Amino acid sequence: MHIAEGILSAPVLAGGAVAAGAGVYAGLRALDDEAIPKTALLTAAFFVAGLVHVPLGVGSVHLVLNGLLGMILGWTAFPAILVALTLQTVLLRYGGLTTLGVNTVVMAVPAVVSYYLFVPFLRRRPRPALVFAFGCAAGAAGIAFGALLASGALALSGRAFYGVAALFFAAHAPLMVVEGIITGGLLLYVWRLKPELFLEQERTP
Amino acid sequence: MSSEYFQTRLADAHMDFWAGYYVASRKPPSEVRPLLIANIGRDGARPSSRPCQAAGGTTSVSSRNRQETLRRFRGTHSRPYLFFTMFCMALALCLLSGPSAFAHAMHAFEVQGGLGVRVEYDDGYPATHAEVRVYAPDEETHPYAEGITDAEGYFVFFPTSEGPWRLVVDDGMGHRMEKNLAPDPTHHNFVYLSPRRIRWMEALFGVALILALFAGYGRWVAVRKGKTD
Q1: CA distance A170 to A168
Q2: Which of A5, A75, A128, B119 could make an S-S bridge to A96, C-beta 3.0–4.6 Å?
Q3: Which of A185-199, B11-25, B80-94 shows the highest mean pLDDT?
Q4: What are B3-29's pLDDT values in tens digits?
Q5: Do B207 and A163 touch (CB under 8 A)?
């Protein structure tokens, strides 16, 4: 899901950078002092998850965890993902420096969407089985929406949207399952440990 | 066309169909349901366990029923239809056997060597079925060779001169790389599978950097708040 250098056209790169900048600004406004350690830990988790290769399907497929990040961090997922992606680019050569903006948008927008979609359900204090189910849905949706956005970015740079999207979904279908289960498990764990993470503070700018 | 003609033809056709279906399904005949409608006389090829099986041209179903069935078959099993079917099958046979029958002017020789690459992602997994374009030296636009990597990420081509040959690999999902290759005459081709690796050092370094960065940010926020308060 990390788009490399030399593929996207200049307007798409610029648009991605602007959108990512706006998202990071909103995320930093939403970030209060007490949330900094939590954000740091989840940024590190996102960074390391990118190293975990999922040996299913074709292509380079690894964990993303953007659904989980979104549910716990809300808009703060934007700066967290930007930082993690920057380090992945510099240290691991994932993606590229010019595509940082687009890649941030591709992974952070689904995170914010999963925050708005799934956290309201958590506020109703559902049963643990339902929490797990929400986590699964958020994990899978994070990947699916990210694949859709990445296909869109490639399509805007002159590729056939359906071909790219079909390839993306074929490659990421196993990941959606794996990531769904992992996100569900982690969400259930965090929910049992510290439900106030989801109940108390709003994480919107 | 007499009805006698149709009865014979249908019995034959039924038998053929039946045999074909039996081979394809690999079931004992008693378990296979015939594809054609059953209540036709003179199909001795059908298994004896079928209730409406008939011997020697006698029928076990009513004559009216049989007439009705035959009338239905006339639509799809008329003589022009059969001729057309056979024509199509003959044509398909010709077309399918074409390359071996007509391509006498082509030869294939086994070759050894060539310049090969293995394309893999950063984590050591092969980039399978990725699009590869090879550009000859001093050529920018028209590729010398195009293709895809195989299931293990390999791609081989045969350079016609010393390089550098420019390789552009694109997996269609946003990963892309360029590499200049210079063929080395003394170089033996070998199969190289790099170990799947997790880059612990980079991972640890990255995590440490992230924690330090956020610690610094928290400190900065605290200091700024202390100043404004």
Answers
A1: 5
A2: A5
A3: A185-199
A4: 443 333 444 444 344 333 334 444 444
A5: no
The letter for the amino acid at B87 is F
**Chain A touched by B170 (CB under 8 Å):** yes
Domain with A127 in it: what CATH number?
Answer: 1.10.1760.20
Q: Does A60 touch chain B (CB under 8 A)?
A: yes
* A141: containing domain: 10-199
Q: Give the total number of structural domains in chain A.
A: 1
The reply to whether A2 falls in a domain is no
The more confidently predicted of residues A54 and A114 is: A114
Please work out, in degrees rounded to the nearest 5, the angle formed at the alpha carbon of residue B45 by the alpha carbons of B44 and B49: 85
Q: Which residues of chain B does A60 touch, with a Cβ-Cβ cutoff of 8 Å?
A: 121-123, 125, 127, 171, 173, 175
A204 within domain boundaries: no
**Which among B203, B210, B222 has CB closest to A43?**
B210
* More reliable by pLDDT, B97 or A204: A204
Domain presence at residue A1? no
- Average pLDDT estimate for A93-121: 92
CA B70 to CA B212: how far, in whole Å?
Answer: 87
Which of B175, B209, B210 is facing A60, going by the closest CB pair? Answer: B175
With b for 16 or more beta-carbon neighbours within 10 A and e for fewer, the B170-208 pattern comes to: bbbbbbbbeeebebeeeeeeeeeeeeeeeeeebbeebbe
Report d(CA A40, CA B207) in Å as an integer: 9
Asked whether residue B61 carries a pLDDT value surpassing 50, the answer given is yes
Would A129 be classed as within a structural domain?
Answer: yes
Of B123, B129, B202, which has the smallest distance from its Cβ to A91's Cβ?
B202
